[in-house]
Write a structure and sequence with these properties.
- It is a single chain.
- This protein is mainly β.
- Helices cover about 0% and strands about 50% of the residues.
- The protein has one domain: YVTN repeat-like/Quinoprotein amine dehydrogenase (Methylamine Dehydrogenase, Chain H), CATH 2.130.10.10.
- It has a five-stranded mixed beta sheet, with no helix packed on it. It has a four-stranded antiparallel beta sheet with strand order 2-35-34-33, with no helix packed on it. A four-stranded antiparallel beta sheet has the order 3-4-5-6, with no helix packed on it.
């Protein structure tokens, strides 16, 4: 049983039918890094590959179309490709300097089936038509000087929720009418790298935002603060999304740079620490919760390993030989890409990290592979920082 769930009925995704094989938004249709699509083995050679420009955007897949983004010639380009062939359907460009260090976008374009929403590393939010790529509206949140950019650029993907597009920009996030771009609520100051998470506690809608210096619980419609918990990390990098239990009463957070993890209790009004340790330091890969076990990447900046800890007390189950990377859950297995481009199929359990198959791709490994792989419609999509996007068969 998956521990983390999203409020049903009010999430904007509920407005359209999601095929079981689709992955339309950041971390998948359920927002928890999982898909029900089972993977028993992975192909040895790519079905197709293309270059989408530098960056770290993952992909979203809906009704046979793949969305991703990369930077070319100081433009963040949103791509819509045929998911089966990689053939370009449309592109939409947003002016954005590439930068010398870690160039390109960090956020992932997401869709509600009608529109596509994307945030550039400079904080420009764009809404384009899903079928044509035509720009519908855009907002620049850094031009006024009231919102600060981050050391490595804004990275929050858009959370589509209750008719709103919500992003982690400003010290408490921002929400816009998803159809028009009209602000619903806003904040000033410095945002952070993680993506907002919607959840419920005793039938009350809540929003978790991992800001630069704290975890915030907000009222989704107003942005009003319900509770907060201080969490200071080096360079103010809180990049992994919060994980929330099904009843909303416990929230797991983790950060890199040796900071570690904590499990917080939430009673609808306040957050209190249950435990804190440094067994798992998640730099930016959001862990996955399964049956009381937290699986995550312990390490920072390319150095670390996949490990498993106990949710209830933070004790370590195991630390594997699988190197620093990013992963999702497909069926009962993990699809995990290492920093060097090695793709692994893993059977996780409390006892061990069961490595089932490894596929090495030297072209992928020519640049950092920090982007989350995605499984959709019988295919695995992986990319590296230089923009090489590879499609591999998943059986």
């Amino acid at each position: 049983m998956f521990i983390r769930t999203i409020l049903s009925g009010t999430v904007l995704l509920a407005a359209f039918s999601i095929m079981a094989a689709d992955w339309p938004v950041w971390r998948g249709a359920k927002g928890d890094g999982t898909t029900t699509e089972a993977v028993s083995t992975i192909g040895d050679a790519p079905l197709w590959e293309t270059n989408v420009g530098s960056g770290y955007s993952a992909v979203s897949v809906y009704k046979g179309k793949l969305l991703t983004a990369g930077n070319k010639n100081d433009q963040d380009i949103i791509y819509c490709l045929d998911a089966a062939t990689g053939k370009e359907i449309w592109t939409c460009a947003i002016k954005c300097a590439a930068t010398k260090n870690y160039p390109g976008p960090r956020a992932t374009p997401v869709t509600d089936g009608s529109n596509v929403y994307m945030v550039s590393r400079d904080g420009d939010l764009a809404c384009v038509d899903f079928n044509t790529g035509k720009l519908k509206w855009s907002k620049s949140r850094l031009a006024t000087g009231e919102v600060k950019n981050l050391k490595w650029g804004l990275a929050s993907s858009v959370l589509l929720y209750d008719g709103m597009a919500i992003v982690n920009i400003g010290d408490k996030g921002m929400a816009f009418n998803a159809a028009t771009g009209v602000p619903v609520w806003q904040s000033q100051g410095e945002g952070n790298y993680s993506t907002p998470v919607a959840f419920t506690y005793q039938n009350k809608a809540c929003l978790a935002i991992f800001s630069a210096e704290k975890l915030l619980i907000l009222e989704p419609r107003t942005g009003n603060e319900i509770a907060s918990y201080p969490w200071i990390t080096k360079y103010n990098v809180n990049a992994a999304d919060p994980l929330i239990t099904a009843d909303g009463s416990r929230i797991f957070i983790s950060s890199g740079y040796g900071h570690g993890s904590a499990l917080l209790g939430f009673d609808g009004q306040s957050l209190k620490k249950i435990w804190e340790n440094n067994k798992l330091c998640s730099h930016f890969t959001t862990p996955i919760l399964i049956d009381g076990i937290v699986y995550g990447v312990n390490g920072t900046g390319g150095k670390g390993n996949l490990c498993a800890i106990k949710l209830s007390d933070g004790s370590l189950y195991w630390q594997s030989e699988i190197k620093f990377g990013s992963f999702i859950q497909a069926g009962d297995k993990f699809v995990y890409i290492e920093d060097n481009g090695t793709l692994n199929l893993i059977q996780p359990s409390a006892e061990k990290c069961g490595l089932l198959k490894t596929v090495k791709n030297s072209k992928l490994g020519s640049a950092k592979c920090w982007t989350m792989p995605v499984v959709a419609e019988g295919r695995i999509y992986c990319r590296n920082a230089n923009g090489l996007l590879v499609c591999i068969a998943a059986q």
